[in-house]
């Protein structure tokens, strides 16, 4: 299967003399959803930020796109980022125009997504007046509007209401069936268990387990009636050998 993202991070951190994550090696194939899981402070956001070259220190390599073909990506940060003086619609148009989407295609995609996320009425409002969940939806709408080869999403579920969560999942599945790859960090393990093909479990800045749910159960020494949460508990509370992925 073709890799859309290959991560070979030896070390990364917020200062040159401080290593926050180390030995993070994994890949995401076309059409697959890889879940980045781990407790608070495990290094999920740092991994994502260093993939995006947003950490001051990074040693290692990140390859984006398939063999001989640079891929496109959309990054949805944990904290929404917006301009105070642009309306919702202006944000979408700005993102579309810098990414070369023509006006007709932009309007078609943007209107469909606003409808889906129930923000049509707020089209000409300023995101600074939005709730956290509505700002999160703005970030997701931009990502889906760009229809990239790869989605990198940092904790999408916190802040979204149940209907928006379902809408987000259905759009994600639609993008995957079109061949898009997804890397998603989350604490919401029941959703992750249902959605993700494979998991990277981080603890104390490094990978402690990786694979699909069956492989995680095996690595945790658990039987098939155990959930992702049970595996997570084993990997993050007991001394485990670091398992190569
Ligand atoms: N801006 C920063 N400057 C310095 N250290 C940071 C910064 N952000 C995170 N860290 C440190 O890096 C380590 C990993 O944090 P990170 O935010 O990646 O964890 P996380 O798994 O995303 O946690 P959470 O689930 O709480 O979001 C922690 O020790 C944290 O204190």
UniProtKB/TrEMBL annotation:
SMART domains: AAA. Keywords: ATP-binding, Nucleotide-binding, Transport. GO terms for molecular function: ATP binding. Signal peptide: none annotated. Residues 2-229 form the ABC transporter domain. CDD domains: ABC_DR_subfamily_A. It holds the Pfam family ABC_tran. SUPFAM superfamilies: P-loop containing nucleoside triphosphate hydrolases. InterPro entries: AAA+_ATPase, ABC_transporter-like_ATP-bd, ABC_transporter-like_CS, ABC_Transporter_VariousFunc, P-loop_NTPase. PANTHER family: ABC TRANSPORTER ATP-BINDING PROTEIN ALBC-RELATED, ABC-TYPE TRANSPORTER ATP-BINDING PROTEIN ECSA. This is ABC transporter ATP-binding protein. It comes from Paenibacillus septentrionalis.
């Amino acid at each position: 299967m073709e890799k859309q993202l290959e991560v070979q991070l030896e070390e990364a951190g917020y200062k040159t003399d401080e290593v926050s994550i180390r030995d993070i090696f994994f890949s995401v194939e076309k059409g697959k959803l890889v879940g980045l899981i781990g407790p608070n402070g495990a290094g999920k956001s740092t991994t994502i930020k260093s993939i995006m070259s947003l950490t001051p220190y990074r040693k290692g390599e990140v390859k984006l796109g398939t063999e001989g073909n640079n891929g496109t990506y959309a990054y949805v940060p944990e904290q929404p980022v917006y301009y105070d003086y642009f309306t919702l619609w202006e944000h979408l148009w700005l993102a579309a125009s810098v990414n070369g989407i023509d006006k007709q295609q932009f309007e078609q995609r943007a209107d469909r997504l606003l409808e889906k996320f129930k923000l049509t009425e707020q089209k000409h409002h300023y995101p600074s007046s939005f709730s956290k969940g509505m700002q999160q939806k703005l970030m997701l709408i931009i990502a889906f509007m760009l229809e990239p080869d790869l989605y990198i999403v940092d904790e999408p579920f916190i802040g979204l209401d149940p209907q928006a969560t379902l809408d987000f999942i259905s759009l994600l599945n639609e993008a995957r069936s079109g061949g898009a790859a997804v890397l998603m960090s989350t604490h919401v393990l029941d959703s992750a268990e249902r959605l993700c093909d494979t998991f990277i479990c981080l603890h104390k800045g490094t990978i402690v387990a990786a694979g699909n749910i069956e492989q995680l159960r095996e690595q945790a020494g658990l039987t098939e009636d155990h959930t992702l949460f049970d595996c997570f508990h084993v990997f993050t509370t007991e001394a485990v050998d670091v398992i190569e992925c």
